[in-house]
Amino acid sequence: MPIELFKIASNSVQLLRGQTVAAGPGKPAGPPAGPPDQRPGRPEHEEGVDVEDKPKSAVPRRYQVIFHNDDYTTMEFVILALMKFFHKNETESLHLMLTIHRKGAGVAGIYPRDIAETKVEQVTSFAREQGMPLLVTAEPE
Length: 141
Hints:
The chain has helices at about 75-85, 90-105, 115-130, and strands at about 5-10, 10-15, 20, 60-70, 105-110, 135-140. The chain is an alpha+beta fold. The strands form two sheets. A three-stranded antiparallel sheet has the order 1-2-3, with no helix packed on it. A three-stranded antiparallel sheet has the order 5-4-6.
């Protein structure tokens, strides 16, 4: 039950919402008559108020982290990046690196958007530090 704040002014009690309740001599000042849920001026009992249901949240969209083939990045570096940032073992990294090399691109992992973008940034920064022009992108599934 919400607490109503009152302002006392000469022989009447005034609610902060602007409602007034008479409080004469011998009459105790108090809240307006009637159950608190059905008092006039309460927003939940006004007519013409439309309430919209919130749509249920959908499953977050997932993004593929894609390594792109180029002529300068070494195969060993791609394997190292896959092992370091995507926690692939050596065999998985080798297989994925060969797929990237043969097909031109390969999916290293599928993640929510923020994680995919972080991985792209980490791998790209690491590649630039090592002098490699590796291109890694995040694309919706």
